[in-house]
Amino acid sequence: MLEWFAIDLIKQAGEYIRLQIDESYRIERKTGKGDLVTEIDRAVEQLIVDRIRESYPEHHIIGEEGISTEPDDLSGTVWFVDPIDGTLNFIHQKRMFAISIAIMVDGVIEYGFVYDVMADELFVARRGVGTTLNGRKLPIIKEHHVRDAFLSMNATWVTPNQQIAPEVLAPIVRDSVGTRAHGAASLELAWLAAGQVDGYITMRNMPWDYAAGKLLVEEVGGRLVSIYGEPVRYDGKTSVLAGSETFVKDVVKHYVIAKGATPEVKPDLQIGINGS
Ligand code: 2AM
Ligand code: CA
Ligand code: CA
Ligand code: CA
């Protein structure tokens, strides 16, 4: 069964990372000094792709490191794979990174898996069934407004970005209980599903970053949309705003729209999925 296959696969990949983390490995730059890939990222994606191909040759795979040829559309079964989400944490902290896998069937995410490798915490979501953490069902998350929310926010909100001006987001940081930048999108969404943070905001994510986390969050009653409150796309980069319905509405209505923010780059601008 697909769910058990994916759980076995993600745990095997995690074990491989734990064995390699203290060994020496090559690190390469992608677009800049903060955008790195190691040979472990590539080896893990290769391991995952090989096993999916062996058992499900008709499935398509969209992975961050581009090991598999991306499909032309999202019909049939499509796997979104981020072999190491939080590569900088993997390199520098040796913790707080995850393997993120989502399975989409005919355009709908049916399963989400986020594995915190060093903490050995596996989050699993099945659409319509719920989210579990190491097999234990997670309760519905509490409703929060910005003023009583503890947030995880990617620090790129401070810098000029293609989505929204820093002045629009600064009041959210000011009004919330506190903000953290943990550096691993899938894990920050998993922690949101577990009630450990009350919201997650980032200006730039790709589908393999949030596809699994989105289902984890939705299956405990939360929402995940763009910073403008629109549905997120699966064919390119997007901003991400996630939390309880109250939180998401509060951010969009009282912070983003109220400040008259409009996208500097249209959020659903069409780009190639493995491009930039
Ligand atoms: P990554 O580690 O797999 O690259 C970092 O704050 C979070 O944003 C991570 O989940 C990281 O995933 C993701 N991210 C997506 N695009 C990124 C980029 N171009 N540069 C840095 N982090 C990126
Ligand atoms: Ca990366
Ligand atoms: Ca990622
Ligand atoms: Ca990655």
Automatic annotation (TrEMBL):
It is an enzyme of class 3 (hydrolase). Keywords: Hydrolase, Magnesium, Metal-binding. Its EC number is 3.1.3.25. It catalyses: a myo-inositol phosphate + H2O = myo-inositol + phosphate. This is inositol-phosphate phosphatase. It comes from Exiguobacterium mexicanum. The lineage of its organism: Bacteria, Bacillati, Bacillota, Bacilli, Bacillales. The chain holds residues 1 to 276 of 417 of the full protein.
